[in-house]
Structure formats: C-alpha cells, structure tokens
C-alpha cells in the first residue's frame, strides 16, 4: 500500500537502477548531464538517492539511455511517483537528518559505535531533552520538543511486535560517565539501557577506558543493513552541518571490519550489563 512506501528507500533503489542503465549504455554522468543540459551534480544526486526525482527526470533519462522496454519505463516511473510521497517523519517538518531516518526505518539491522553518548534509539525522554538542549544551546523550546518527539518515534522500531530492528551497540565508557541532564537522569538512563539490552534483538557492549587505543577513535558511525538484497549496506557518519553516507562495498567492508575489532575489544554482554549497573549505582547518591 502507498502508506507503507518508504520514499527514501524508493529514491535509493531508483537511483541504483538509473546508474545501472547509464553504465550499461557506457556513458559517464558528465555525458548524461551534457545531453540533458543539467549539472553533473544533479545526475550524481539522482543516482545516490539524495535528491527527489520526478517522472519527467525518469522519462528524460530513459530517453538518453534508449530504454525500449515500456515495462521498465513504467516501473521506473512508478518508483519515481512513490519516491515523492512523504514518510512519517515529514509530519514533523524539516528534519536535518531525514535521509538517515528513512534508511533506519527500512533497515533490518543496525550496528552503532558511540564514543560519547547513549545512542538515540536507547535514550530516555529526559536524557534526549537534556542532550539536545546541551548540544544545541540556541535551539528553541519548540524545536527541541520536535527533535525529541522524532527520536521517541524512531524507537518504535525497537519495540515493534513484528520485525523489530536488530540493534547492536558498542558504547564507550565515556558515554556512561558523561553526566547529561543530572545524576537522576543518568541513573534512569542507565537502568533503561540495562532493560533494553535484555531484549533478544538488542545487544549492548561497553568498551572500557583501559582498552586504550582502538579502531573507533575517529568517532561515531553506524552501519545499516537491509533485508532486500537490492539494497546495499550503508555506513552513516553524522556531522554538525552535513552527514556522510558511504555505500561503496570497500568502504562498508572497512567499517565492518573495524566494528568486529570493537566488538572483540569490548566487554561481553553480561559483563557489559554488570558494568552499566555498577556505574548506575554511582548516580544513586
């Protein structure tokens, strides 16, 4: 049904198919741009799914690629139409990381490394509010509430009865000991973290300080994987003013190997849960 269409994923799949047609034709993005009198950056954005694509764009590209099978053209046109629908997150207005939300909403599994903070999908409301207020001090109360509401809505993927998101989180010890909000907020957050870690599809490991140097020192990242074989895995790197999405197989593989090292260097699941509980006790005073 149309209401279940994820526009971000549809744009991504459509972009992949358009790239495949271009490569079959033996054309570069620059050559296509010259034929259509548009910028090369537009063709690149259409192919990587970062830009909304119209049915007219699809028609023009199919013409350049000399696609003769009308069934293929009709299928691509339908994907373009679906990709322009709005996901649930659009009801909250302009969300800076809406592309990521679209990918996360459709992902089958998510691996996250967090060096400083409890990951968003496992945050309590109080922790999330304090975090946004601290990280974005000039943000209005209305904007803070909107961001928190979106974060709480995203967490429905974790608690869903059917096909919940498989989540694996490696948290640096710093994320447990950085006081966000207050000691009470932290105690409740860590207790919530322990509770969520007991779900069969959620794994939480702690990377203690005494490990020393490790592959995650360059910062936070997430690896999203999808059930559909046509959807390649994505590495997401969050930035202050813009985000980075890596989809090349060699890039994803490099980050996946790094993640395996982080898992191996972290405490096991039971030891991690006990570690979190011990830190939570320090906030009971």
Automatic annotation (TrEMBL):
Task: Name the InterPro entries for this protein.
Answer: Cro/C1-type_HTH (IPR001387), DUF5753 (IPR043917), Lambda_DNA-bd_dom_sf (IPR010982)
Q: Which Pfam families match?
A: DUF5753, HTH_31
HTH cro/C1-type domain location is 18-72
Query: What CDD domains does this protein map onto?
Result: HTH_XRE
Q: What is this protein called?
A: Helix-turn-helix domain-containing protein
